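Handout, tutorial session.
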Amino acid sequence: MIQWPKAKITMSTRLEALLHLVQKDENDSFSRYGLAMEYASAGDYAKAVETFNELIRRDPLYHAAYYHLAKTYEAMGNTQEAVRTYETGIFVAKKLNNQHAMSEMTEARDELKNATES
């Protein structure tokens, strides 16, 4: 009978796994993005904002972070910061020539502005 070696680290949640990945490679933008998304989906908006902002600080061209950071600000009721984040994300997407991201963030920003002006 074959005995497989036991894993050195056992992870009970995605959050723990993502934390481990980010600790292992602090410059892994994809893992940091996943960690921020996990915090946001768990409703830990403060940690999500902190993690998205750290991702943007380390990798300012990671355009998806701007969209989801803005959505997190929306969930927190911080409309002004959400609009500002969308606008920064639109600028980044334009710089990257990413029409899809640019249009998605423009639409989200405009919907948010229209909803708050009503």
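The second record follows below. Compare its token runs with those of the first.
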Amino acid sequence: MRIITVSREFGSGGRELGKRLADELGFDYYDKEIISAVAKGKGLDENYVEKALDHHAWRTIPMTYGRSFGLQPMQSMGTELLLEQKRVLEGIARLGKDCVIVGRNADLILEKEKPFNIFVCADRDAKVRRCMERADEKEKLSEKDILQHMKRIDKNRASTRAIISDSEWGKGESYHLTVNTTEWNLKLLAPAVAQLALKWFEQANKA
């Protein structure tokens, strides 16, 4: 089984790159499917679950979470959702199939499976441009709106990782590969990243 995890800055194109990698390699792909599984497992609305996990849940997690993964009493809904997300990710790993997983701290939760971990970033202008190109016309988001949203999302992602791990979100040594998508066409970039991933797995299997 080969697992590729994709962590990313908001607006960097990490989700698209992850999907293209899965298509290129013929791997299963998990992104929104994880939210759906968590929502189903807890009997909750998917939009609520996504917002809770992405924006609020980390604030309610005891500092013991990263070391115990639930051995201490945890009463908050945010914590329950994170634990359900952990169960979903472990369930994906138990399937034993090659896959790409975007976000959800899968690189940490599935560490024992020895995944190939990618971090995707881009410069500010490129991320703003990507967000504007993909935004719903009805939203009418300004650059200021996008920058504020970008800052909030990335701060939450960094905060969650800091609570459940000693490794730093976005820092090079926390990942096997950091990809700057600023001047790249993702359709052209994906095959190159796919080849690097295959080489990494080949080398890892020989170790």
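Points raised in discussion: The longest strand covers residues 3-8.
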